[in-house]
Amino acid sequence: MSSFLLRRARVVEIDPGTRHGPDPVDVRVQDERIIEVDHDLDRPAGVPEFDADGRWLIPGLWDQHVHLAQWAATAERLDLGEASSVSDALATVAAALRGGAPRWVVGWGHRSVPWEPQPTVAVLDAVAGPRPVVLISGDGHHAWLSTAALDALGLPRRDGMVAENEWFDAYQRLSAVAAPEPDGLVRAQRAAAARGVVGLVDLEFGMTPEDWAARLPGPLRLRASTYPETLEQYAGLRTGDPIPGAPARMTMGPPKIISDGSLNTRTAWCCDTYLDAPVLGAPNYDLADLRSLMTRAAEQGLEVATHAIGDRAVAEVLAAYAETGAQGSIEHAQLARREDLPVLARLGLRASVQPAHLVDDRDVTDRCWGDRADRAYMFRSMLDAGIELALGSDAPVARLDPWLAIAVAVHRSVDDRAAWQPQESIEVREALAASVDGRGTVRAGEPADLALLDADPLAPGDSVDQAAALRAMRVAATWVAGELVHAAF
Fold this sequence. Notes:
Number of strands: 21
CATH superfamily of the largest domain: Metal-dependent hydrolases
Helix content: 25-40%
Strand content: 15-25%
Number of domains: 3
Oligomer: single chain
CATH class of the largest domain: Alpha Beta
Number of helices: 16
Radius of gyration: 23 Å
Shape: globular
Largest sheet: 8 strands, mixed
CATH architecture of the largest domain: Alpha-Beta Barrel
């Protein structure tokens, strides 16, 4: 069903200026698109009708940075997000082994920067014995493996972590033996639809066109990514093209280049050393190779999603975009020099940011970058510089919940502590605009990708109250291409 009439909906005015006013209106959808938005519309014969009963209508939300298979897999993995020490993590592993865990024990979510002592293979082996155990960090950039897991994944033995490119390669081998069930990917999409999500940019590792084509069709729109190692297999496909044989709602997305590391692994490439370690981080690519990759993608007609977390990485990535003429986004941009913001704006690049990382990394940022924390997660400064923001989660690094991202962008805290670096907060309307894939206020002529809300997201209040209401937002219905994919009204 791709045609319907929605009665008595209040249209949320995301764009500046009022179009529809405060009174409810009707919205007519035909053949997957919005045809009319007005009062007292006639219902065509045979077209279903829904009563919004005065609820609030917005364009459906997009998460612009997801690793969907990894997010789905977290439902089957040990949750180490609350571990505060090596002993905490080991206790969780030991309990799983006593409880009859599968042969491969995979955990997710630890953040080991503040731990003393630091994790070692030897202490993990003392608990794991001959079992392969893989504990993936909460940022996805390193993993703590037992010797049995190192051997099984073809990695050299060592006593420390496996990080960055070596880990990314190993993760693809791990996925072959510890992948989520295929219907888990569909369940994850349906859970996202229940939060008003209509589309995802899926930046999953190692996917070929054939892999995407083999995915079970889910309810959401997906933009499928690739990485440099598989880019050649996408020859002839441009950004936005359908992927041959893939589900109808899947199109070609951006190739992703991971130019540097992460804060929690201390591999994000910075201009100055970390406060708690005499390191600068490091690039993952030679700068000439980075430019070559961007050039290849641009010549193929692909936008590029380039991961850059440290301020040195952001500066070098901007220089590469300027030199090659490539378009697309900087992913994360957690730390940046203020002089680089006008460059980002001038190049017309998006800042694809994940606000929930701010609260997860707040204490680590103060520990590692405290002398430059005013330049971390600069959402206000980016908007003021004319940069387009696009919000996402980086699930499973943070949970796939756009309302959490919007809330944190508005009030930079989720606990009783005051907002962190509050001068970089943005308004609810601005955060919503950064979450709807560039659409703005619902209007005729646009795709019928819609979310109906039980509360007004623009309700007045201070940032604490607004953020609490946003996190608790209940979605009554979600439509994708005119199809009702979630209903709770």
